[in-house]
Design a protein that fits this description.
Structural class: mainly beta
Strand order of the largest sheet: 1-3-4-6-7-8-9-11-12-15-16-18
Strand content: over 45%
Shape: globular
Radius of gyration: 19 Å
Largest sheet: 12 strands, antiparallel, barrel
Distance between the termini: 14 Å
CATH topology: Porin
Order of helices and strands: HEEEEEEEEEEEEEEEEEE
CATH superfamily: monomeric porin ompg
Number of domains: 1
């Protein structure tokens, strides 16, 4: 398989790059009881954590460390307005990723698996703070196809099925948690294309399904909660400025497509959405990749919103 800057090409993760901040208070916006609750929050998602050259990969091992820094200055309601008294949330999260792709092929693609561990510190102001380990993400099935040409354009693509395992720090009596306390499934498809020499564009499309949380925060008064289904994608466009240096634009978009549920009852006007755009870069030196991505969120509904910085270091073997 072809390489960039002489390095054997990796597949650039991010299955569900957990930003790891599942904050229970965001599920109830301002500490409402069940009767007043209007939203069940989605778990932490890969919103902008995977970026440039995302669809490229080949047999071998990969290790990766990612850090996210977020300041969510406000929480929005279904109209996109700031929720009164919601306050701000500051968080730092770290994700450690190990992946493997075999030399053998299935359906024309190399198959493999991966595991992502997470840890975070979340400061939700007067609602409290918490640090520790978050949920685990496991993928027992990856298919990475070698480069093909479609109408003369080189493309690399991958399909992955990820499972979120709720092993992180969680307590029904806490306003701030590092786990969703519910399983989820997130298959995704990633593709990178090179429409012109020195130009790349990468896209990753996710679908999300959430299981039921049978022990929601006590102050909701609920017996069970279930976040709605959602779709989201990441996108990039970059120019190869110099050797292994790519600079360009990156963005993401999330749209919840079904209502959340409390005690099995759907919540109207509750789906989340948000978009974001910003500058980014990746620098490839030998077998190392260094990423930096900045995002400013736009059009948020029923979720916290603010700027986001992602720093990522990747090593391929």
């Amino acid at each position: 398989m072809k390489s960039l800057g002489g390095a054997f090409l990796r597949f650039s993760w991010f299955l569900i790059s957990k930003q790891i901040l599942f904050i229970a208070i965001l599920m109830i916006h301002s500490g409402m009881t069940m009767e007043g609750q209007s939203h069940v929050a989605e778990p932490s998602l890969n919103l902008g954590d995977s970026s440039f050259l995302d669809g490229i990969g080949g047999p071998g091992f990969l290790t990766e460390q990612m850090n996210d820094f977020e300041h969510d200055g406000r929480i929005t309601n279904s109209s996109g307005q700031t929720e009164p008294g919601s306050g701000s949330v500051n968080s730092v999260s770290g994700l450690s990723h190990v992946a493997w792709l075999a030399h053998q092929r299935v359906l024309g693609g190399w198959y493999g698996m991966e595991v992502v561990g997470t840890a975070a510190y979340v400061d939700a102001g007067s609602q409290g703070h918490r640090g520790g380990f978050g949920d685990l993400t496991v993928s027992p099935f990856i298919l990475q196809w070698p480069e093909k040409r479609v109408f003369g354009i080189p493309i690399d693509q991958r399909f992955d099925v990820d499972f979120g395992v709720p092993v992180g720090r969680y307590s029904p009596t806490s306003n701030v948690n590092l786990s969703s306390n519910a399983f989820n499934v997130q298959p995704y498809y990633a593709i990178t294309a090179f429409p012109k020499k020195r130009i790349e564009t990468s896209w990753r499309f996710h679908y999300l399904w959430n299981a039921t949380n049978d022990a929601p925060p006590i102050n909701t008064g609920a017996q069970s909660t279930q976040a709605g289904q959602a779709i989201h994608f990441n996108a990039t466009a970059a120019y190869n400025l110099y050797k292994g240096l790519w600079i360009g634009a990156n963005g993401y978009y999330l749209k919840q497509i079904t209502d959340g549920r409390i005690n099995g009852v759907s919540l109207s006007n509750s789906p989340e959405q948000v978009g974001a755009v910003g500058p980014g870069m990746v620098w490839n030196v030998g077998h190392w990749y260094y990423y930096a991505n900045f995002y400013q969120e736009l059009g948020a509904e029923n979720r916290p919103t603010g700027p986001k910085l992602v720093l990522r270091i990747e090593k391929v073997f």
